[in-house]
Design brief:
two-stranded antiparallel sheet; Farnesyl Diphosphate Synthase; homodimer; 72% helix; mainly alpha
């Protein structure tokens, strides 16, 4: 089974395990809507790629951790789309969760997804207890206070915020967790991989800014031009389009430089480069008509 | 140090560990506002009492688990008070979190508290790894889908819900988790204790219904008469005041009956009975003027 199919299967299985079974049907449907159909599943792909590069013999731990990170990502999208935040009407080309199910179920679906992320890792009996705990702690750090994704979102509520601190928490934390979790899954030291993930996260942020500024809303499946509308920082607005693209390539190069020596180093480097080209092409593409 | 002080100290310490350190200050303040000053801290008290009754030699595991359950409880209150749910203006005699900090920070504070609950248990190095994982799984079950507190809240969004199923999830789940966690902390079998907790949770729900109907808003620190206003089920409305009180005592008796044999059985039984009297008295008391 290829990586993409493995990830979809893991997410579907995780939702099935805790959904249904006499729970409230609309909550299950809202959670499902938040997770499927997915985006590019960058974070779990990254986690699995790092685990493989570090010589993981099995995908079980990386799949659980990467899947859990994807669930945290979905949770943050649902809460981020709420009327009190971005009030986004669409996400991945479909109505956002609060548009489809109402605000109450959107709040609860986000909550349920956070819980589910911990369940996905904690209940994975095939992974050694110490490793599972290390992953649970990593997820908590990436999600919560003071530097996780929730903190990142909270910087939007402050009158003063350092842009780099905001972006590191809002976007970087889950990417850094994805690479660190990949290393943990392979029994490798997560610390150097955290830096790799942080650079990738920063690159992703720049790519997203390029997409937002280029205005390919149909392709991104969400409204664009939001940064300008919401007065949020955007790399294209700050640097110009050409410099933003150069910045993206510099960040990917920095990620590759930061990679510690490992068995699958060359392959992972090639993957980073081709993923960057694809990401950039997708962000710059404009809808046919 | 007495139990109450131990619990406050644990909660304050947990918030300090992840708050501050360069995170967004308003989020830290909102989380603090959600946790302090607390209510009766019933759930962690119950967890510690069961751990002691089961012969736990140390309070560390029960304190972490009970504290985590209290954090999940606080998270659910913050989200439950949001404008899209109960739109409550006060909680524990103070402005609710969204009134004090705005809706966005209330959503995020709830999210951060859920994450914090897992952190509190997962990072407690003094507790054996297998035990910590068992507690993390228990927390997830009590919080999430299909039968945890988030699911309980989601039953309010369904057009049809079985009252007992709703209440078991909305109120019972955290009480059942508190007793089960107490047993796990002492190395005892959690299953029979789960039933004890479920009865206590049901009793607590009835006591709360009595308080809501009696209308002692000043004492409860939150608006009363809400069940009637929101068209929600209330034991007093269904059974009458006298029968509701009898039902409360029956449920406490059922909890005591369900208790498995343990070292501190007699003491715990006495504690349940005196706590019931206190709870009932507080719920029936009316403000001086």
């Amino acid at each position: 089974m290829n990586t993409g199919a493995l990830i979809e299967q893991f997410l579907a299985q995780t939702l099935r395990t805790v959904g249904g079974r006499g729970g409230p049907p609309k909550l299950s449907a809202a959670v499902h809507h938040a997770v499927f159909p997915g985006g590019a599943r960058f974070r779990p792909r990254l986690c699995l790629a790092v685990a493989r590069a570090c010589g993981a013999r099995e995908a079980v731990a990386a799949l659980a951790a990467g899947g859990a990170i994807e669930l945290l990502h979905c949770a943050s999208l649902v809460h981020d789309d709420l009327p009190c935040f971005d009030d986004a009407s669409t996400r991945r080309g479909l109505p956002s969760v609060h548009r489809a199910f109402g605000e109450r179920l959107a709040v609860l679906a986000g909550d349920a997804l956070i819980v589910l992320a911990y369940q996905a890792v904690a209940l994975e009996q095939r992974v050694e207890a110490a490793q599972r705990l290390q992953l649970v702690a990593l997820l908590a750090e990436a999600a919560g206070m003071p530097h996780g994704i929730v903190a990142g979102q909270a910087w939007e509520c402050e009158s003063e915020a350092v842009l780099a601190t905001y972006q590191r928490a809002k976007t970087g934390a889950l990417f850094a967790a994805a690479t660190a979790a990949g290393a943990i899954s392979a029994g490798a030291d997560p610390e150097p991989w955290r830096r790799v993930g942080a650079f990738i996260g920063e690159a992703y942020q720049v790519a997203d800014d390029i997409g937002d500024a280029a205005g390919c809303s149909e392709l991104l499946g969400k409204p664009t031009g939001r940064d300008a509308a919401l007065g949020r920082p955007n790399a294209v607005a700050q640097l110009g389009a050409g410099a933003a693209q150069r910045r993206l390539h510099e960040l990917v190069a920095a990620a590759i430089d930061a990679m510690p020596a490992c068995a699958g180093e060359a392959e992972l480097r090639a993957k980073f480069l081709s993923a960057t080209e694809q990401l950039l092409a997708s962000r710059l593409a404009r809808p046919a008509a």
